[in-house]
Predict the structure.
Amino acid sequence: MAKNIEDTFDSKMDSTDIYNYILPNGIKIDYQPVQPTVNAHYHSFIELFYILKGKIQHEFNGSFSILQEGDFALIDVKSFHKFTKIEGNDCSLINLLFLPTFIDPSLNADSDFNSVISSRTINQKTLPSHVAINQIYHESENEIRRILLCMHSEFFNAQYRYLEVLKSLLKSLLIHILRYMLNDIMPTSGSNSIDIAIDYINKNYQDNITLYDVSALLHYTPQYFSTKFKKITGVNFSHYLQSVRIAHSCQLLQFTNIKISEIATLVGYQDLKQFEFVFRKHTDRTPMQHRQFCRQNREIQFILQ
């Protein structure tokens, strides 16, 4: 479950106070089982997660992927993401959170990944425009896994000058991740037919697409496609399509002044009441409440529990 940070911290706390509460030493690393659902959220620190066991469904800014053992991703600041556990699947991951200032004190607390790698610590030029930061990668050599496990051990045991060791390990970790990014190692893929379906939904969610449309695209019967989609993703087709549409509507509500009725149309709902019903089902807020909340807070922050 994700908790709104506004409900957790004193309203008088500024962003620095909040960061110090979440990451008192500028870094945190956990080994944890995946909760049934970690709601869509973003934050102003950098996150990296690595799947140790099992499979999960993960959302990146409205795009969905199925992740499995050996997959990892770096989440840049202000990038929406969400975990959903696949039913009947035992999954665990290593989750790393760190402030840019941990690796280079000369950076600002809200610096992004490009600022981190171009700092004097890493000294890498800004990534080319075609290199995606928020991307899923897969490793077979277990080097990144090994570094993360070493970091977890250092963090958990907290022995003499452990933060210096963590800083050194983090630098090594980021350089290894850059090798994947710059060498254009192919990202992981799941079941090919479901990947095609997911890609189709992500590109056409604003249209009136149906289960029958996508199953016909793959030359499956609707019944077979529906069963296979649920088995691979852990959710049914309708829920997945709704999640994509609501994720995009959240961004439009937060970052634009477009009327709610127009946003409903832009994300595939011709009926405003239906859009409001689905939005509330997925977010526990009405679209207007979500927009008001975003305007009252310069930045939405969440803390995972």
